[in-house]
């Protein structure tokens, strides 16, 4: 028996979703999907390398790449990646001019690879 993937935003969830399983379920359902992956951190980045955020073409997402600091900016880039089919390497940090805009004021830097997978 294969595991059931709960719908995005399910309040009844007791453990974090397997975002790769969510991505696969969305892709099989014909939804355009992008995957964001933490590929490098320095300092006090809140998520480790290998953390994922999966985003569908409507902007729904599961997972986390920064504990809420940069998710909004990553979702926007993912939607653009879905639209143009190109990957992106994003970098956020306190030395970056967007640090305060996206909320990464805790210190450190984070690099996130975004790729369309549908």
Brief sketch in words of this structure:
The chain has helices at residues 19-28, 71-84, 99-102, and strands at residues 33-42, 52-56, 61-63, 88-93, 109-116. It has 118 residues and is α+β, with helices and mostly antiparallel strands.
Could you explain how this protein is built, in words?
- This protein is α+β, with helices and mostly antiparallel strands and 118 residues long.
- It has one domain (19-116).
- The protein contains 3 helices and 5 strands; from the N terminus they run αβββαβαβ.
- The chain has helices at residues 19-28, 71-84, 99-102, and strands at residues 33-42, 52-56, 61-63, 88-93, 109-116.
- The chain has a 5-stranded antiparallel beta sheet with strand order 3-2-1-5-4, sandwiched between helices.
- The chain is globular.
- Largest β sheet strand count, sense and barrel closure: 5 strands, antiparallel
Helix content: 10-25%
Number of strands: 5
The chain-level mean pLDDT equals 82
**N-to-C order of helices and strands:** HEEEHEHE
Total helical segments: 3
Low-confidence stretches: 1-6, 10-14
Major sheet: order of its strands?
Answer: 3-2-1-5-4
Principal-axes shape call: globular
Query: In percent terms, what proportion of residues is strand?
Result: 25-35%
Distance between the termini: 25 Å
Which structural class matches the secondary elements?
A: alpha+beta
Radius of gyration, taken over Cα atoms and rounded to an integer in Å: 14 Å
> How many domains in all?
1
């Amino acid at each position: 028996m294969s595991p059931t993937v709960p719908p995005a935003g399910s309040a009844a969830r007791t453990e974090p979703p397997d975002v790769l399983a969510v991505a696969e379920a969305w892709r099989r359902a014909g939804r355009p999907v992008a995957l964001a992956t933490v590929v490098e951190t320095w300092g006090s980045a809140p998520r480790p390398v290998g953390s994922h955020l999966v985003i569908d073409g409507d902007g729904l997402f599961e997972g986390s790449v920064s504990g809420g600091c940069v998710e909004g900016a990553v979702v926007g880039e993912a939607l653009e990646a879905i639209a143009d089919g190109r990957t992106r390497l994003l970098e956020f940090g306190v030395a970056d001019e967007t640090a305060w805009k996206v909320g990464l004021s805790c210190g450190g830097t984070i690099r996130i690879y975004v790729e369309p997978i549908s």
